[in-house]
Amino acid sequence: MKTIPGGLRGSYPVPTTDPVSGATISLLVESSDGSTQILLDAGTGTKNLLPRLRPGALLALTHFHLDHLLGLPLLAPCGLSGILSARPDAASILSRVYSPPVWPVPATTAPFALATPGTPHVHGALTVAFHPVAHPDGCHAIRIDEPATGESLVLATDIEWALMSPADRAAFADFARGACDLWFDCHFLPSELPAHRGWGHSSWRDAIDAARLSRARRVHPLHFSPACTPARAASIARRFRTGR
Predict the structure, then answer these.
(1) N or C: which terminus of the chain carries fewer CB neighbours within 10 A?
(2) Can you point out the beta strands (E) in the chain?
């Protein structure tokens, strides 16, 4: 299984020399044989993934804040097989966002499918599962497994680890148990969290804690703050390598 990040920034895109780090969240997951593609969220990073997308790809949405939806109109000609969400009102939400006078045409004609948290959804060679996490207006972590190879990925963007109870953290750890790769929200520095309680985001220290609790093999930072400089991102990456 292969993961190609298209955007790693949170809240809104910023100009950087690296188009992926400056664009908002979108990741493309491909099965090992290349037969199946799942796009995770449709931020502005979607544009960077268009050359790789093939007809039949599935879009899975963590939630409906705009930084995760701004690239959705770019997918209209891509021939998506569907849009998967754990919210039953997903179609209604997107029709309100992408309609006049805010947007002149519907963003997508792809059919919607409802995912039940805890129940895997099969898409080709991959399975998709959702798990609720702490974030304003709701959000779900997404797990993708490839049964043929045993590889797995968990995307936990827009999660406030500090607001999750011990039981909530244990439930998340069970959901992410043994993931090969855990992509985790690192919007704030640990020192910034007290002033941003309730904002729905975490820090590199939370990411390491979640990775240890779930026994993930590798952990990757994402949803960097718009204020995050390349030096700050590099510092976070070093902390991930050392685990402290």
Answers:
(1) C
(2) 2-7, 26-30, 37-40, 58-60, 82-85, 112-114, 121-123, 126-133, 139-146, 151-156, 181-185, 218-222
pLDDT in tens, 87-145: 999 999 999 999 999 899 888 889 999 999 989 999 999 999 999 999 999 999 999 99
| Cβ(209)–Cβ(188) below 8 Å | no
Percentages helix, strand, coil for the chain (3-state, rounded to 5) are 30, 25, 45
Architecture of domain 2-242: 4-Layer Sandwich (3.60)
Q: Encoding tokens for residue 118?
A: 């805890």
Least confident of 97-111, 123-137, 146-160, 168-182: 97-111
The token pair that represents 168 in the structure block: 């909530």
Label residue 242 by pLDDT band (50, 70, 90): confident
Max distance between CA atoms of the chain, in angstroms, equals 50
**Half-sphere CA count of 142, side-chain side, radius 13 A:** 26
Q: Where do the domains of the chain lie? A: 2-242
